[in-house]
Specification:
Blueprint (H helix, E strand, L loop, with lengths): L4 E4 L5 H9 L8 E4 L1 H4 L12 E3 L12 H19 L18 H8 L42 H22 L1
Antiparallel strand pairs: 1-2, 2-3
């Protein structure tokens, strides 16, 4: 059976893994590798694939860089992560046609998320699951979706949040 997600860790210690990510230790940080085309083949042209390599990072690791230094660092880190992944997917690099690198700085700029916070509120029990913001608001017709809302963070949490918000919109439209 083929899997659409792979996790690569260099340690069994969650604390050490987290610290590697936050401290910019890209040789040892945990990686998530996702092939969304395994979930939905229509996302890519026939005969092509899609691969996302993701690690946590800190805004502090990217702040204050000049434009040239920022571009150089993005290229260097992307190369390092691809090299790590080639241990499991040999020659991966030669199959890459398009590559986009998103940093906490980019996520902050384009997603307006404070310091590139991809997971929204802190992932503490009091701010997780049903304790997150609801998709419904007190303003009729205004719905929320994303990492800050239920069910929570991550790409898949955001997809579920968006689907839940869309269901609420459809429900409202059917009443009208």
């Amino acid at each position: 059976m083929q899997q659409h997600i792979l996790f690569i860790n260099t340690t069994y210690s969650h604390e050490d893994a987290f610290n590697s990510c936050i401290n910019g230790d890209y040789d040892n940080c945990s990686l998530s590798v996702v092939d969304h085309a395994q979930i939905d083949p229509t996302l890519v042209p026939e005969g092509r694939g899609s691969l996302m390599i993701m690690t946590l990072d800190s805004y502090e690791n990217w702040k204050g860089l000049s434009g040239d230094d920022y571009k150089r660092k993005k290229t260097e880190i992307a190369d390092k992560l691809i090299r790590r992944l080639e241990r499991y997917l040999p020659d991966l690099r030669k199959y890459i046609e398009v590559m986009e690198v998103a940093t906490p700085k980019a996520i902050s700029r384009f997603g307006l998320s404070p310091e590139g916070a991809i997971y929204g509120f802190s992932q503490r029990p009091g701010q997780s699951g049903i304790n997150r913001l609801s998709q419904e608001t007190k303003i009729k017709g205004l719905f929320l979706a994303g990492a800050w809302t239920r069910p929570g963070a991550g790409v898949h949490g955001c997809v579920v949040s968006g689907l839940d918000a869309a269901d609420l919109v459809l429900k409202l439209l059917r009443k009208s």
